[in-house]
Amino acid sequence: MTRGRTDAKALTVALVWIPSTLWLDRYASLPGQLGLGVVTWALLAWWLAHETRLVRAQTVVVVAIAAVVELVFSGWLGVYVYRLEHVPAYVFPGHGLIYLAALTLGRLPVVRRNASTAVRATVVVATAWALWGLLLSPRHDVLGFFWYLCLLAFLRWGRSTLLYVGAFVVVSYLEILGTVWGVWAWQPMDTILGWVPMGNPPSIAAGGYGWFDLYATLLAPGIIAWWEARRGDVDEPVLDVVEPDGAPA
After folding, report:
1. In contact, 107 and 7? CB cutoff 8 Å
2. Residues in CB range of 141: below 8 A, 6 or more apart
3. Please, what's the b/e burial string for 37-49 (b: 16 or more CB within 10 A of its CB; e: otherwise)?
4. Per-residue pLDDT tens for 15-63?
5. Is there a smaller number of Cβ atoms within 10 Å at the N or the C end of the chain?
């Protein structure tokens, strides 16, 4: 089976599992959330078994950073709050699936062939959404506009442009479903500075999530090199994901 067909199947599984998990969480107790967590970890392990060592390392970085962010900004500071007021067990592996889904979407052949169009469409939709949140939304969304500026920077200067395009699609999909279904809710005002208004969800949450992607692509090669030095293992070369124009991602 070709890489493109494998990616399409894995992406379909992720985009079905994400809303399924969120829908089930609307009615789940703590044991139910733990069960969803077990299944999500299993799905993440299955997906990673079909990926390169570099992508596996990138995913570990994303899961680790996202876990800290979740526990600090939701569990401690309450910037956004989950339905049962704790971070559900499926959220941690779920961040890994989100990263893989964004990466996979960006490397689909149809997206790579139309990379410029995909980037321009992302900018157009993100701009309209961010301006609506800032100027027209009932909840003045300053955080969303800030993250919109982050997304533009990632698309302009990032090493993996289509990864950020994929993140915009997948994270927006996730945030809209999660907030509409009441799985989590963002506070009207940030709880750190106390003066930054936020949408529910912030309009371009993918711009904030892009920092996870940035650190994943920056740190993963060094982690692999460190691991190889410890084990003396050089069997599999560390290869970058490649953009359609041939630039390393």
Report:
1. yes
2. 130, 133, 134, 197, 198, 199, 202, 203
3. beebbebbeebbe
4. 899 999 999 999 999 999 999 999 999 999 999 998 999 999 999 999 9
5. N
Q: Is the pLDDT of residue 129 over 50?
A: yes
Name the residue with tokens 């959330």.
33
The label of the residue with tokens 């399924």 reads 20
Q: E strands along the chain, which residues? A: 80-82, 184-186
Q: How far apart are CA 172 and CA 168, in angstroms?
A: 6
- Picking from 159, 246, 157, 146, the residue whose alpha carbon sits closest to that of residue 206 is 146
**Lookup: tokens for 138:** 């009932």
Distance between CA 241 and CA 188 in Å, rounded?
38
Residue ranges per structural domain of the chain: 3-227
If DSSP codes are grouped into helix, strand and coil, which group holds residue 172? helix
Distance CA 205, CA 84 (A): 22
Q: Dihedrals φ, ψ of 134, to 5°?
A: -75, -40
Tokens 């599999």 correspond to 236
User: Residue 171 has which token pair?
Assistant: 């994270």
